[in-house]
Amino acid sequence: MELKDFYFDLPESLIAQHPYEKRDECRLLVLDKENGQIEHKVFKDIIDYLKKGDCLVLNDTRVIPARLIGSKEGSGGKIEFLLLKRKEKDVWETLVKPGKKAKIGARFKFGDDLLTAEVIGIGEEGNRIVKFYYEGIFEEILDRLGQMPLPPYITEALEDKEQYQTVYSKNEGSAAAPTAGLHFTDELLNEIKEKGVEIVFLTLHVGLGTFRPVKVENIEEHHMHSEYYILSEEGANTINKVKENGGKVISVGTTSTRTLETIGGRDGKVKGASGWTDIFIYPGYEYKVVDGLITNFHLPESTLIMLVSALSKRDIVMKAYEIAVKEQYRFFSFGDAMFIR
After folding, report:
1. Calpha distance 63→207 (Å, rounded)
2. Alpha helices, DSSP H only, in 170-294?
């Protein structure tokens, strides 16, 4: 398949710049993956589509305030660090801007010398390997000095860091939020549980590769980024039991989906596991575990819209996107939601 097969025209005015005041009152487009039928709802109506015996799978990763603004020792030139991946205790793979200032051996400081850093290597795609020096607890210092690493298409600052976290976020390590989960409230999750729907949490730490554009015309040549995941044995057993009893597994977000499809066997069963996944899902892929997907509206020509298209048919999904644009749904991280059933 070609990259242009996943293009659609998106007016900039439809890119959401701030979250809804009430998370579960965003709009919800419900799409039948077989026949393309569409319903327009409000997100809290999702409960009407979940049945007793189904399973909702959510990603409980927590975004770290991974954006650091500092200066170069000596020259005082401004520098921006974006923490991508922890290599070991105080060593991180980091995106540095401007990169030309960050040669091996260069040192930087942040927050009146509360935190200093030295470039000790150069990794994939020019990312810097950086060692940090500090007194105390790194996570506490990062919480004081760091900013939320909002996607490049969001230009407005957040009033509260928690707006870019799910209400169930728990395990720190992401450079971006699993945004499909931003629509849930504690109250809605409790109602879903009371209905008899199983809720399973897994963890996948989202990397900035999720925003990386596809640069090849033949999408099969695209190299997918890798991300770290964890699914407990207990969670796996719950999912398998739901499958055995004829219930549906509803994945919340592309990150949960990638994790389940990485772990799942041909028989649709999963097992407790942890590791790195670089699975690339696009039309032609046969889903093994996931029956339905709650997700946001994604960028044109992105790996995420390809994953969504694989669960239905490309033509059905692209038509749904065309309707979403016409109906002025809000797009991307703080936008509206879609349920493919």
Report:
1. 10
2. 186-194, 233-244, 253-263
**Residue reference for tokens 């093994």:** 288
Q: Which two tokens stand for residue 101?
A: 């200032």
Question: Does residue 90 contact residue 131 with C-beta atoms inside 8 Å?
Answer: yes
Distant-in-sequence, close-in-space partners of 204: CB < 8 Å, separation ≥ 6: 59, 61, 178, 227, 228, 229, 230, 255, 256, 258, 259, 277
Per-residue model confidence (pLDDT) at position 61: 97
Specify the amino acid at residue 325.
V
Sequence-ordered alpha helix ranges (H) in 154-226: 186-194
The model carries a pTM of 0.90
**Domains plus CATH for the chain?**
3-63+161-340 (3.40.1780.10), 67-145 (2.40.10.240)
Which phi-psi region, left, alpha or beta, contains residue 125 (left: φ > 0; alpha: ψ -120 to 50)? left
What gap in Å lies between CA 207 and CA 88, rounded to an integer?
17
pLDDT in tens, 53-83: 999 999 999 999 999 999 999 888 899 999 9
Instruction: At 88, list the tokens.
Output: 């070991």
CA distance 229 to 291: 20
d(CA 302, CA 214): 6
Closest CA to 8 of 295, 326, 341, 275: 326
Can you state the angle between helices 303-311 and 253-263, rounded to 10 degrees? 60
* Chain segment 185-201, per-residue pLDDT in tens: 999 999 999 999 999 99
Q: pLDDT class for 161, splitting at 50, 70, 90?
A: confident
- Pinpoint the alpha helices (H) of the chain: 138-145, 186-194, 233-244, 253-263, 303-311, 314-326
Token digits for 173?
């390590």
CA distance 81 to 128: 9
Residue with tokens 């974006």: 82
